[in-house]
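FAQ

Q: What does a record look like?
A: Structure on top, sequence underneath. For example:
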C-alpha cells in the first residue's frame, strides 16, 4: 500500500444556534489543532447562498486561517474559477502568498458552488464554461509567471509567485484537463463517488509531465467521522445525513445536531440516495476507520486523503481528526 498524506477540507459549517463568527473561530481552532498533528494542508471551499456554509469569500477566510497558523498549507478547495476574473484571483492569491510565503494553495473548479439563480447573480455564462475554465487556468499561470513582467496586464501581487494550482473535479471532465495541463488533481469523493475510479484512471493514463509536477498527484476527498465507538460515530454522522437531506429538499438551514433515529427524518428513497452519495465515508471507531481507510487506499493508491467532517459538536470534531491522525500513522 502506497504511503499517503492527510489533509482537511473545511466548509466553515454554520450550526443551529451558533453565529457565523462562532463558525470562523471554530475553523481557526480546527486549523491550529490539525497543524499540531502535522496535517499537510487545510483547504476551504467556495459555496454561495447556503445558510449552512460560510466560506463564500474564500480568499478572505484563507487569509484569516493562514494568519492564525504558522506552518500548515492553506488554500482553496476550491475557488470556482468561472465565478471570477482570472486577474482578480491571481491578485488575491498573490497577496496571500506574499503574506504567507510557501504556504498557499490554489485549487480551482468549474462548478458554480451554488444553485442556478445564484450562479446567474455571480455573472456566470453557462454557455462558455467548458472553454472558459481551461483558458482561465492558463491565464492564472501566465499572471503568476515572471515572464509576464513584460505583459500589458500584470498581477501585482502575484507575478513571480510560486503558487501551486490544483484542478478540482467531481466527474471525468477535469481529470482530462488536469492530465493535459500536468497539474495535480483533487476529486470530490465526499459527494460525487460515481466517477472517481474512472477519473483517476483517466488522469494517470493520460498525464503529461510538467516542470512543476513531473509526476501525477491525486488528492481524494472523503467524509470522515471517527469516535470512541462505532455507535457514537454513527450518531455523529446523522448531522451529515441531515445536511444531505436538506440539499435534496432544498432546505438551506444551518447544520442540525445529531439525532437518535434517521428513519424518523428520511424516507427510504432519500436514505438510499444519501447513502449512495456518501459511499466514501469513513465512519466508526479508530479500528473501524483504520480498516476503511486501508481498504480505500489499497483500492485507489492516492497521494493524499483529504477529510471533511460534518460533526456538530466542535470538540467531537477535533477528536475525530485526532483519531484519523492516529490511523494514518499506524498505516505508514
Amino acid at each position: 500500500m502506497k504511503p499517503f498524506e492527510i489533509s482537511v477540507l473545511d466548509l466553515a459549517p454554520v450550526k443551529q444556534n451558533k453565529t457565523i463568527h462562532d463558525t470562523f473561530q471554530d475553523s481557526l481552532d480546527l486549523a491550529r489543532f490539525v497543524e499540531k498533528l502535522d496535517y499537510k494542508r487545510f483547504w476551504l471551499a467556495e459555496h454561495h447562498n447556503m445558510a449552512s456554509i460560510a466560506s463564500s469569500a474564500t480568499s478572505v477566510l484563507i487569509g484569516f486561517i493562514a494568519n492564525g497558523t504558522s506552518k500548515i498549507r492553506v488554500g482553496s478547495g476550491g475557488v470556482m474559477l468561472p465565478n471570477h476574473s482570472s486577474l482578480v484571483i491571481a491578485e488575491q492569491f498573490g497577496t496571500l502568498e506574499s503574506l504567507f510565503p510557501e504556504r498557499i494553495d490554489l485549487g480551482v473548479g468549474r462548478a458554480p458552488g451554488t444553485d442556478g439563480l445564484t450562479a446567474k447573480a455571480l455573472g456566470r455564462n453557462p454557455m462558455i464554461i467548458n472553454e472558459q475554465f481551461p483558458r482561465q487556468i492558463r491565464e492564472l499561470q501566465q499572471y503568476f509567471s515572471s515572464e509576464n513582467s513584460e505583459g500589458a496586464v500584470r498581477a501585482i501581487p502575484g507575478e513571480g509567485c510560486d503558487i501551486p494550482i490544483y484542478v478540482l473535479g467531481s466527474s471525468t471532465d477535469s481529470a482530462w484537463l488536469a492530465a493535459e495541463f500536468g497539474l495535480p488533481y483533487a476529486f470530490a469523493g465526499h459527494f460525487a463517488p460515481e466517477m472517481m475510479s474512472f477519473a483517476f484512471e483517466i488522469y494517470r493514463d493520460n498525464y503529461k509531465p510538467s516542470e512543476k509536477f513531473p509526476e501525477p498527484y491525486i488528492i481524494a476527498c472523503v467524509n470522515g467521522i471517527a469516535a470512541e465507538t462505532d455507535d457514537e460515530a454513527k450518531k455523529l454522522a446523522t448531522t451529515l445525513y441531515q445536511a444531505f437531506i436538506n440539499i435534496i429538499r432544498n432546505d438551506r438551514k444551518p447544520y442540525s445536531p445529531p439525532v437518535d433515529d434517521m428513519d424518523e427524518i428520511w424516507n427510504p428513497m432519500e436514505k438510499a440516495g444519501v447513502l449512495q452519495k456518501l459511499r466514501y465515508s469513513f465512519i466508526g471507531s479508530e479500528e473501524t476507520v483504520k480498516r476503511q481507510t486501508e481498504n480505500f487506499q489499497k483500492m485507489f493508491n492516492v497521494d493524499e486523503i483529504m477529510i471533511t467532517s460534518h460533526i456538530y459538536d466542535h470538540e467531537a470534531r477535533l477528536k475525530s481528526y485526532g483519531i484519523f491522525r492516529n490511523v494514518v500513522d499506524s498505516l505508514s
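Q: Is there anything notable about this one?
A: The CA atoms of residues 247 and 253 lie 9 Å apart.
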